[in-house]
Amino acid sequence: MPNISKLNDVISQVRRDIVRMVHANSSGHPGGSLGCTEFLTALYFHVMKHNTNFSMDAKDEDVFFLSNGHISPVFYSILARSGYFDVAELATFRKLNSRLQGHPTTHEGLEGVRMASGSLGQGLSNAIGAALTKKLNKDDSMVYTLHGDGELQEGQCWRPLCMLQVKR
User: Fold this and answer.
1) What is the pLDDT of residues 90-110, one digit of tens each?
2) Distance CA 79, CA 73 (A)
3) Which of 62, 87, 133, 165 would disulfide-bridge 142, Cβ 3.0–4.6 Å?
4) pTM value?
5) Which residues contact 7 (CB under 8 A, 6 or more apart)?
């Protein structure tokens, strides 16, 4: 059973982080970030089995792919509050030479980020590839992904989902 009080404390702190990051730069997407706070807090602090000693292979651990990267403030806060990197780094959000840019990228070497999420609609493909890899490796761990409503109208997601048919 989750400790609801602890989860609520994390949710409150993540919301403060989001507002501080976006306000400090007058730039970012606070609405989507604030709207996903409870989901990502529950995922990272209760549901997922993950290791803050980050490696891209994620053997025997659950993985998460953020497809709608414009909600990076919530993702960065969750990663920092989970212990992937120092919370103080949140103050560098969208600053020059910061690892915390408007969309997460892998080339910045930020722990917890498994894909660059600037191109809309790519997260599903990455998550499916990771899930198939885990299946082939007989790894029972879960793969999670989050998509925004706008991105589901672009990229690889919308057309296959609309045309999906079940054959018996």
Assistant:
1) 999 999 999 999 999 998 889
2) 10
3) 62
4) 0.90
5) 41, 42, 45, 46
